[in-house]
Design goal:
This protein has a four-stranded parallel sheet with strand order 1-2-3-4, with helices on both faces. With about 200 residues, the protein is an alpha/beta fold. It has six helices and four strands; from the N terminus they run H-E-H-E-H-E-H-H-H-E. Helix 1 runs parallel beside helix 2, helix 2 runs parallel beside helix 3 and helix 4 packs across helix 5.
């Protein structure tokens, strides 16, 4: 995983051996952890997992790729997937939120450090998306409510949709479109930002 520097370095080496260079890094590795658990009731191992994968993993994969981009000295594009939770209070998911706040901070610092090498570094903050990150949460809470996972998921998605100004959950294409922009030629003068892809749920 991205939290293992040996695995990351091996993956970067294999990429260089096959293609000769790395122009773009899109890091979308992440883990969600328990939902609805207060800080007072939280478990250290869950916090360590969040920071190992989401935060330390961001640093490790950035380091490995940035060193190669700097060595080649032809610029590059780096995009990390953070989260709307990294900009908003997130009661019951503090470990996840804190780890994603850290990702945004890493992106901003890295953008400054890599700017002299013409390497752009940005983040994307997804809002409510129907992904497998919610699977464990759906399994746990469906049992508590005595309904099927499918029934719970349908109710949850309906509730979340009503919270979104554009009145729909996000689709993978919404993230893909912004990613394509950030790694393309049109975004040469954009670095160190985190773009909200939330249907209007988050506007700052």
């Amino acid at each position: 995983g991205v939290e293992d520097s040996k695995e990351v370095n091996a993956a970067v080496k294999a990429t260089i051996d096959k293609f000769g260079r790395i122009d773009i890094l899109v890091n979308c590795a992440g883990t969600r952890g328990p939902v609805g658990v207060s800080i007072a009731d939280g478990d250290e191992k869950d916090w360590r997992l969040m920071f190992d994968v989401n935060s330390l993993g961001t640093m490790i994969v950035s380091k490995a790729v940035a060193k190669e981009m700097i060595r080649r000295n032809e610029g590059g594009k780096i995009v990390h997937i953070a989260s709307a939770a990294g900009k908003l209070p997130c009661p019951g998911s503090a470990a996840y939120a804190a780890s994603k706040w850290a990702v945004i901070g890493i992106v901003q610092a890295l953008a400054m450090e890599l700017a002299p090498y013409k390497i752009n570094v940005n983040a994307i903050n997804p809002g409510f998306f129907a992904t497998n990150l919610r699977d464990d949460d759906a399994t746990l809470h469906s049992k508590e409510k005595g309904v099927t996972v499918e029934q719970f998921r349908e109710e949850e998605y309906k509730m979340l949709t009503n919270m979104v100004p554009l009145k729909r959950m996000g689709k993978v294409e919404d993230i893909a479109d912004v990613t394509y922009y950030l790694v393309g030629e049109q975004s040469q003068y954009i670095t160190g930002i985190s773009i909200n892809v939330t249907g209007g749920t988050l506007m700052h």
